[in-house]
Amino acid sequence: MKDWLQPAQRLGSLPQYVFARLDELKLKAKEQGLDLIDLGMGNPDGATPAPVIKSATQALHDAKNHGYPPFEGTPNFRRAITEWYHRRYKVSLDPESEALPLIGSKEGLTHLALAFINPGDLVIVPSPAYPAHFRGPLIAGAEIYEAILKPENNWLLDLNSIPELVLQRAKVLFFNYPSNPTTAVASREFFEEVVAVARKYEILLVHDMAYAELAFDGYQPTSLLEVPGGKDVGVEFHTMSKTYNMAGWRVGFAVGNRHVVQWLRTLKTNIDYGIFSAIQVAAETALNLPDSYLETVRNRYRDRRDFLIEGLGKLGWNIPKTYATMYLWVPCPPGTKSTDFALDVLSRTGVVLTPGNAFGKGGEGYVRISLIADRDRLGVALQRLEEAGIRYK
Description:
The chain has 393 residues and is an alpha/beta fold. The protein has two domains: 3-47 and 292-387, Aspartate Aminotransferase, domain 1 (Alpha-Beta Complex); 50-287, 3-Layer(aba) Sandwich (Aspartate Aminotransferase, domain 2). It has helices at 9-12, 18-31, 50-60, 75-89, 105-116, 132-139, 164-169, 188-201, 230-233, 258-269, 277-287, 291-313, 338-349, 375-387; strands at 37-38, 99-102, 122-127, 143-148, 170-175, 204-208, 234-239, 252-256, 327-331, 351-352, 354-355, 366-370. It has a seven-stranded mixed sheet with strand order 2-8-7-6-5-3-4, with helices on both faces. It has a three-stranded antiparallel sheet with strand order 9-12-11. Strands 1-10 form a two-stranded parallel ribbon. The mean pLDDT is 93.
C-alpha cells in the first residue's frame, strides 16, 4: 500500500475486535457444513416485546417523527429514563441535564472517552472487561492501567491493589457490575468504597450497568448513583438491548454528573444526529413495561443458567451459581489457552464460545457462554461436547 494510504495511528493500537473474528470463523464453519449453536455474542434471542413494537409502529405513522430528532433526545424519553431511575433506585435526576439518550451504550461509552480523555491520560480498566471499556480510551490515546481481576476475589476490583501513583495519575475508572464477562456482582459497600476513592483522587467513575435487570434469586444490583456522592464523581450507562430484546434497535442512555453528560452531548452534536424519534418512543414504552415482564425475562435466563450449570457439572465443571447477567464464565481445561479451547470446541462441535482473553489479559484461561438459546438447543450443545470428549479434567 502506498504510504499516503496509511490509516491513522490510533487504529494501530486496536487489536481485532473479537466478535468480528468470531464471525469469520463462524462463516468458515458454516461453509464446512457445521450446524452452529452460537453461544458467543450476548445477542438476546426472541422478539422485542409486543407493546414496544406496537408503539414504534404507531410512531412510524406520525410524520413529526420523520425529521431530525433533538440532539439531546426527546423530552419524553429523557423523562422516562429519569422516572425509571427513581422507581428502581430512588435516584432523582434532572431530565434536562442529567440524562442523555445514546445510539446504544457501546457508542456512548466510546464517545465519552473521546469527550473526556486526552492523549497520555491514565485510565484504569479492570481486566477482563467489556471491550468498549478499553477500546474507547485506546482510540482517545489514553495510557491504560489494566487492573487484573482474580477469581479468589470473586472477580471484584481490588482497589487496594492499585498502586498509589496510578491512583494519583488516573483520570477515569471504568467498571461494570453485574459484570460482563465474569457475571460477578458487587455489594453496596463496594460501591461506597469506589466512590470514596474517586472523591479522594478526583477520578471520574464510569459504571456500565447493562445487566441491572437480569438479576436472580433475590439479588438487587446497586446503582452507582444511589450511593451518596456517586453522582458527583460518576456517570452510569445503560442499554435497552439485553432486558428488552432490543439489541438491533441501538438505543441506550447515560445518566449522572451533569457536566460529564453535557460534554458527551457536545461531542455527539458534532458526530451524529441522535436516535430516530420512533425508536425513542419505543424505548420509552419499554421502560414503562410492568415488572411482570422483567420477571419473565429473569425466569428465562435463570432456567437456562440452572440447566447449563447442571449439564456442565456432568462434564466435570464446577460452575458457581450466578446471580446476574445472561452469561456463564467457564474455566478452560487446565493447560489450555482461551482461544485454543474456543476454536477446538467450534471445530469439533459447532458450538461457538467467546475466548476470555478477548476481554483483556485477565480473561485468559476462561470462555464466556451466552445463555441465548432455549433449553433444547443448550441440551444439544451439551450432548455434542460429551460426544466429542470435551470435559474439564
